[in-house]
Amino acid sequence: MTQVSRSQLSGTDNLILERKGGNLTIWLNRPEVKNALSIEMTEGLCGTLKQVENDRTIRTIVLRGKDGVFCAGADLKDFQSVAQRGSAIDAAMGNRSFGFLMSQLNEQPQVVIILVEGSAIGGGLGLACVADVTLVMSDARFRLSETTLGIPPAQIAPFVTERVGLTQARRLMLTGARFNGDDAVALGIAHDHATSVDELEAKCAKILHQISACAPEANAVTKSILFETLRKPRSEALDFAAERFARCILGREGREGVSAFVEKRKPYWVSNLNEESSL
User: Fold this and answer.
1) Rg (CA), the chain
2) Which residue blocks in 150-215 are alpha helix, DSSP H?
3) What are the distances in angstroms from CA 148 to CA 104, 157, 177?
């Protein structure tokens, strides 16, 4: 396991990183454009996720936007620049880079929580579909607006479809329909909604507390098993799960978890939670 110190976690003007105990909060910080994702932000997010992926002292990642807005999607100035260059290869490569971010965030070993305030449009909505837990404001605004701009929701399409199902994905993508946070919960994009920021943060804090009882490596392995079930035939997925189970039950966390249960005490990952804040 590789631990990343506070000094190694450096944000940028567009990405603010806050480490508190086992949680890393990543703030999108371009409020002047409703936190639209520039190429620089996308690369920065990928770099940060890669930097911490093997650090089990970082147990959760919370992604949210500054100034009460989550994310308005891609920066259209970048799209305009790509269109003016007229290179199909450049356009495809630039688009694919966002897909790498979506895949990385989707399968990040840490538990990923996304808080949506204000709006989640286009790629912002796509991001909301790859969190392990998504919490939204009831009045938050959602839309897959790409086709109204003459382009497809290319890189987010598989993830949105996986989240809401093919029928709803077709409706949302082909109509550009607008909907709110309550609708996002009903569609399965989000898991819960709140009517105030205080309530949203309180619900997030409750979830973080629940996660603190779960062993970090066990959570990471569980996520890997879930995604292997989507990629492999059932028999191969079960073989993969059995091999990972064996690693865990014979490893430090498995031995500790069983012993703690038998001895009626908390395992070390619960008791040591506060100590992580000194890293």
Assistant:
1) 20
2) 157-164, 166-175, 181-187, 197-211
3) 28, 15, 10
Among residues 188, 96, 94, which one has the least CA distance to residue 142? 188
**64, containing H or E segment:** strand 60-65
Average pLDDT over the chain reads 93
Angle, alpha carbons 181-68-138 (nearest 5°): 15
Q: Which amino acid belongs to residue 54?
A: N
pTM above 0.85, yes or no: yes
Residue ranges per structural domain of the chain = 6-211, 216-278
Strand 23-28 versus strand 15-20 pairing type: antiparallel
Tokens of 275: 């100590």
For the stretch 143-183, pLDDT in tens is 999 999 999 999 999 999 999 999 999 999 999 999 999 99
From residue 128, give the alpha-carbon distance in Å to each of 6, 43, 144. Answer: 27, 18, 12
Task: For domain 216-278, give the CATH number.
Answer: 1.10.12.10
Domain 6-211 classification at class level: alpha beta
The amino acid that residue 248 corresponds to is C
